[in-house]
Amino acid sequence: MNHSGKVDQDDIVRARNVLLASGRRTPPLFDDGVGLARRLSQHDPTDGTRTLGRILIDRSTFHTAAREFGPALDDFRQALSYLGEAN
Asked: What pTM was estimated for this model as a whole?
């Protein structure tokens, strides 16, 4: 992983692969992915913000499947704002 202070999408993919291989349960993986995407959005506002929006939609979908509708709606609304879709 690049330790120069710059976070890129390859870093996120590598981190996700490490987490998947660790055997951790799925919900923390979504939370970790959102955390990594938030860091990316701070370093690269254009691509990072779009990535954060997509990852929030992924987590929203997971919450919906788990019948956790409040967190799903919160993540979805936040994702729309990052993707420029909110009114």
From this structure: 0.68
